[in-house]
Amino acid sequence: MTDEWFKNAVIYELNIRGFKDSSRDGTGDIRGLISKLDYLDNLGIDCIWLLPMYPSPGLDDGYDISDYYSINPDYGTLEDFKELIFESHKRGIRVIGELVLNHTSDRHPWFIEARSDPSSMYHDYYVWSDTYNKYADARIIFSDTEISNWSWCDKAEKYYWHRFFHSQPDLNFENRDVRDEMKRVFRFWFDLGLDGFRVDAVPYLFEREGTDCENLPETHDYIRELRKRIDEEYPGRILLAEANQWPEDLIKYFGSGDEFHMAFNFPLMPRIFMAFRNESSSPIKDILKRIPPIPGNCQWATFLRNHDELTLEMCTDEERDCMYMAYAEDKRMQLNKGIRRRLNPLLNNNRKKIELAYAMLFTLPGTPVIYYGDEIGMGDNIYLGDRNGVRTPMQWDENRNAGFSECKPSMLYSPVIIDPEYNYNAINVEAQINNQSSLLNFIRLFIHKRKEHPVFGNGDIRFIGVNNEKILSFTRENNGEKALGVFNLSSKAEAARLELQDYSGLTPVELLGGTAFPEIPADEKYIITLPASSFFVFILK
Ligand code: GLC
Known about the structure:
This protein is of the alpha/beta class. The protein is built from 16 helices and 21 strands. Helices cover about 25% and strands about 15% of the residues. Helix 9 runs antiparallel to helix 10, helix 9 (about 270-280) packs across helix 11 and helix 13 runs parallel beside helix 15. The radius of gyration is 23 Å and the shape is globular. Alpha-D-glucopyranose binds near residues 60 and 63.
């Protein structure tokens, strides 16, 4: 297990609450998750990303933390957590958690003391003002629920600053004690064996008048400090940035290889969906050409969906309108600047398109991140509030509560999906494990094949000239290993001539089935035909 393990990994994102309930109380827990580690091991993933596991009033699904040093009692104990780490590591699976630096819950003891006693040291842990006019250029992120980034506090008789829900006051990173406190938090969990953190809401740590209060140099200084500690004391542990920004600002979070190890590729994600909608390779090619190369010790995290809305913040107004038209015709599917649906419903449950999307996820530069339930094609419930429609219980089998819990159905933290197309009777792990042609087995096969070829984690990308705009083609190359991907974004069968002369003499061997295709000729283009919404991934031998 090298320090750069994250470059060749496949990450699986899950919320303990929604995965498996072992205690029959209707809420998932750590013991439940431990009982499903063999499933994850079999799927072939290398790392679990846990959504917040801390005590929390739960007004933002745990991102409103009220104690950074223990486990949400609904999920179990610190002892359970240590066992989870132990059992995961035993299987070669790493575990990363959430580091929510930017804000706490308003029920965190720091805030409770801060608001009731202006002379307490905790008062300055937060950002206060007598007016709501400061930092007027900062956008409102939860624009469907919040009207200002300032909220009035009756007790303190001042306004406090919050970039998210008003129940999540922002910490004051100007205060050295806050910065040190957060270093203690990451030490605490690293000492328990955690392998890294997805760092939440990174761009917003500092505020400065006259700016949009995002990506300030002070934020980068702080991240560099954290990174230095990791390199010195916890080599091999990683920091993964949630920085939903345009490419120019986003890549700065890698620094010169001395800030984040990884960052989510937010600009790429919506453009995969645009490429489907427009039946064109351009959105993907254009954005990847706009993203500068990253330092050699860093890696992108690529994803199709996660626990949030499919964010359209890094889109132009025109692109956003197109996306809403294509993917969120019902207003209920829209939230803030995004779309709150799961992958299968977004792609109309079109199996070919879904496989095509995964094929791109698994071969484009970066480490793929899979959202729990998407590997079996779970549906969503747009009638649940906020982002809860994509956070329903994992569907394990056709038994009561989808095998998620043995509790009374009315005790479930969220209803299971029962609408016909996605009913847990049909869409569940057990049914798909036993079916060789299930989505689950497709994804499992792809993960295992991908693992045999480090080129997918490490290789450079080069776009291949194609005479057909609807076909995306690129090669990946690393240490003499070469891979070729050809993806048909059209909903009709297409033919294409690929400019592969630089690879003449090589034989494309199809990744999933292992069959050899005709050798690449020296002086002609390589002709390939693809059925609707289909792809080929080859290793060039
Ligand atoms: C991140 C999380 C999101 C949360 C927000 C505020 O964007 O992904 O779920 O609501 O931070 O903590």
